[in-house]
Design a protein that fits this description.
The structure is a single chain. With about 230 residues, the protein is of the alpha/beta class. It has a single domain, classed as 3-Layer(aba) Sandwich (Rossmann fold), CATH 3.40.50.620. Helices cover about 40% and strands about 10% of the residues. It is globular. The model has no long low-confidence stretch (mean pLDDT about 90).
């Protein structure tokens, strides 16, 4: 069985990759160099794909900085030092417009070429930053689209399945699952606002959600941070 796994180099996508491997899938990984400010995740993704023995790992370059509109792809400050209530109160400026729609479209094309009917994405609808393209409704709609938009789907040769194994888990539950699968979280990167040497800031929304997850999981986060709140 072949699967396409969307791999950012972060905690969630790495755990998802480990789950796909555990389920016996052959791994074809896609990573995107989309103009993000936290480009250190690209190096982490390369290492992670190699570590898991991916059959193929493609890094696709697209420039979403041409559109901007997000703190990750524009000259907009990444929010720092927000409490959990603030983080959960609204869709944050770190949301990249239509990012998962764009990424999943590439995954779909790659899956068709490789003859894969399974796509894995590490979206989460519990401990997340309010992104609309991480919700179950979005994934269900895209899966319907995938089976209308592909030759294999139209001809009835195979059904495209979008796997979201983390979607109903808390960050702590994700970490616990990954640790049981032997994931080395020291390989991963989550920070939206890393320093020049790629060290995580410790105060952006993503860092705080990660740190909270490790604390609630009763585990130590193995990566280095500039500071902690």
């Amino acid at each position: 069985m072949k699967s396409v796994v969307l791999l950012s180099g972060g905690l969630d996508s790495t755990t998802t990759l480990a789950i796909a491997q555990k389920e016996g899938f052959e791994l074809f990984c896609l990573t995107f160099d989309y103009g993000q400010r936290h480009r250190v995740e690209l190096d982490r993704a390369r290492d992670i794909a190699r570590h898991f023995g991916a059959t193929d790992h493609q890094i696709i370059k697209i420039d979403l900085r041409q559109f901007g509109g997000s703190a990750l792809t524009d000259n907009i400050d990444v929010p720092i030092g927000r409490d959990q209530q603030e983080i959960a109160s609204s869709i944050p400026i770190t949301y990249v417009p239509a990012r998962n729609t764009i990424f999943l479209s590439f995954c779909l094309a790659y899956a068709e070429v490789k003859g894969a009917s399974d796509i894995f994405i590490g979206v989460n609808a519990i401990d997340y930053s309010g992104y609309p393209d991480c919700r179950p409704e979005f994934i269900a709609a895209f899966e319907t689209l995938a089976n209308l938009a592909t030759k294999a789907g139209v001809e009835g040769k195979e059904t495209i399945k979008i796997h979201t194994p983390l979607i109903k888990l808390t960050k702590a539950e994700i970490i616990q699952k990954g640790l049981k699968l032997g994931v080395d979280y020291a390989m991963t990167h989550s920070c939206y606002n890393p320093g020049r040497e790629g060290i995580s800031c410790g105060v952006c929304d993503s860092c705080q959600l990660r740190l909270k997850g490790f604390q609630e999981a009763g585990a130590k986060d193995p990566i280095e941070y500039v500071k902690h709140l």
